[in-house]
From TrEMBL:
This is Acyl-CoA dehydrogenase domain-containing protein. One of its GO terms (cellular component) is cytoplasm. It comes from the Bacteria. Residues 247-398 form the Acyl-CoA dehydrogenase/oxidase C-terminal domain. Keywords: FAD, Flavoprotein, Oxidoreductase.
Length: 440
């Protein structure tokens, strides 16, 4: 039996290097708010260094240029990367490119005839030479993908796509859009859709706008991290641009979102920890109403509760990662759904407490907390809202229970059964009781 929470020393060295690197090289860049081009210039040598250290795109298997670490090791690395919103791009696993690369890879595995997509899109994506977006949500359909209305009709050797998408992250900055569309309207709801690669400069692709959000109320069009509204009007792409097999879009998206979700959860651990450090530092620094904040019970409760919640989220996340490594994604679906809503809430709670302990300073742009808070609010919606994950957990858990007219723990019923079973014992009475019981 092995039941072990330790990290082997060789990998720990990599983690130590990564943590030092993120703090030393990436934290300072956050404070500059560089324009996109300068940011890319600053980041490129850092990406080279990560590649030299063998930590680039660690979520992918070695044959695809990744570290092949498995989810537990990845979790420990992502926890560090998650401390800074700039770090994922430096380590080659920023959303949505990381998930899209996985999607292309799974598609090629599923349909070997599409192996040419590796050189055309997968490798450039992995090298950071092109950018991608995942275009699924529509103004009228999000949490329930069976309601999607965008269509792709096969006419001759071309797919003709028509539809309206919403919240396509990086849509205006992407070279390729991975579009989820209904290709088989008469099939069962989950077999109706396929995913197609659409180069952004294809005629008929209209990036209507980058949507203003709580994070970026006035987005600069084309900036990485924006969320686009996109219209596809008679967009024609070759038949071979299909990812994987026809009708498998929903299944592929599930495969993409499963590990993708856990990677978010891992990064949230690092974000929570950073907010927690700010919470603690402020509480031992600020004096008010006769004592330091750290001496007030409410603040002590925040620190204890945050510590407990972060510990629980960490264990749940790493346990889900371990399950994926040892039993596969399918076996870990309940665990992934649990950490998606629980981890998002813990992240939100800790940042909220860190803001509160800083008072007015907490809501200013002088601290990263206000930006972290807005990002954390998103976490409860993207990759499926909390309510859907809670529903998934409850449904899956309830599969193990059967309806019973009388509760199985009903004491009178259990007593009657016990009286029957131990009838002989009860008949002989005190003679068979052990001495210690007799004494009582
Ligand atoms: C920051 C961010 C980035 C995103 N990036 C992308 C992207 O790159 N590509 C893309 O395609 N989409 C993206 N999305 C969209 C995201 O996937 C959807 O917002 C999400 O699936 C929810 O869909 P919706 O917004 O249409 O909400 P709806 O489906 O309308 O749901 C609204 C609310 O209804 C409630 N609800 C829904 N279902 C249930 C249920 N079964 N039980 C109880 N309550 C329920 C929930 O409270 C939910 O928040 C992004 C979203 C955000 C916030």
């Amino acid at each position: 039996m092995s039941w072990d929470f330790s990290t082997d020393s060789e990998y720990q060295e990599k983690l130590d290097w990564a943590e030092d690197f993120v703090r030393r090289e990436i934290f300072p860049l956050e404070a500059l708010e560089l324009p996109q081009q300068q940011l890319v210039e600053a980041i490129t040598p850092l990406q080279q260094e990560v590649k030299r250290q063998g930590l680039w795109a660690a979520h992918l298997p070695p044959e695809m240029g990744g570290g092949g670490f498995g989810q537990v090791r990845l979790g420990l690395l992502h926890e560090i990367i998650g401390m800074s919103s700039l770090a994922p791009v430096v380590f080659g696993n920023n959303a949505p490119d990381s998930g899209n690369a996985e999607l292309l890879a799974i598609g090629i595995e599923e349909n070997p005839e599409s192996a040419w997509q590796r050189e055309k899109w997968l490798e450039p994506l992995l090298d950071g030479r092109i950018r991608s977006a995942f275009s699924m949500t529509e103004p009228g359909a999000g949490a329930d993908p069976t309601l999607l209305t965008t269509t792709a009709e096969l006419i001759g050797d071309e797919w003709v796509i028509n539809g309206h998408k919403w919240f396509t992250s990086n849509g205006s900055a992407a070279d390729i859009l991975l579009v989820m569309a209904v290709t088989d309207p008469d099939a069962a709801p989950r077999n109706r859709m396929s995913i197609l690669v659409v180069p952004r400069d294809t005629p008929g692709v209209e990036i209507v706008r980058d949507i203003g959000t709580m994070q970026h109320p006035h987005p600069e069009f084309g900036r990485i991290g924006n969320h686009s509204e996109v219209v596809y009007r008679d967009v024609r792409v070759p038949r071979e641009n299909l990812i994987g097999l026809r009708g498998n879009g929903f299944l592929l998206a599930q495969k993409r979102l499963g590990p993708g979700r856990i990677h978010h959860c891992m990064r949230w651990l690092g974000q929570s920890r950073r907010a927690f450090d700010m919470l603690c530092e402020r509480s031992v620094s600020r004096y008010t109403h006769g004592s330091l904040l750290s001496e007030k019970q409410t603040v002590q409760n925040w620190i204890a509760d945050s510590m407990a919640e972060m510990g629980a989220a960490r264990l749940l996340t790493l346990h889900a990662a371990w399950k994926i490594d040892t039993q596969g994604v399918q076996a870990a679906l309940t665990d992934i759904a649990i950490i998606k809503f629980y981890g998002a809430q813990v992240l939100y709670n800790v940042i909220d407490r860190a803001i509160q302990v800083h008072g007015s300073l907490g809501v200013t742009t002088d601290l990263p907390l206000e930006a972290m808070y807005k990002e954390a609010r998103n976490a409860r919606i993207y990759d499926g809202p909390d309510e859907v994950h809670r529903q998934t957990v409850a449904r899956r858990v309830l599969r193990n229970y059967r309806s019973r007219e009388v509760p199985s723990e009903h004491l009178p019923t259990r007593r009657a059964e016990a009286v029957k079973r131990f009838a002989r014992l009860l008949e002989t009475g005190a003679d068979v009781l052990t001495p210690s019981v007799q004494e009582k």
